[in-house]
Amino acid sequence: MSTLVEIEAAADALPLDQKKKLLEFLAARVNGGATKRTPTDLREFAGTVRLPKDPLVWQQRVRGEWA
Length: 67
Description:
Strand content: under 5%
Oligomer: single chain
Radius of gyration: 21 Å
Distance between the termini: 59 Å
Number of helices: 3
Number of domains: 1
């Protein structure tokens, strides 16, 4: 199996659970890693925000811009 058409045909023949695993595998390869994570998993960003001033002052400024 070496052409895209052959690969697509083989993927179509897979049961649903194996298609999901294949999709996870391909998504990991396209995104540059072999980790299992969803696009909405924000835990990796926890604690990375650094504010140069007091968070309350920053929040008040941002909310003031929304008004």
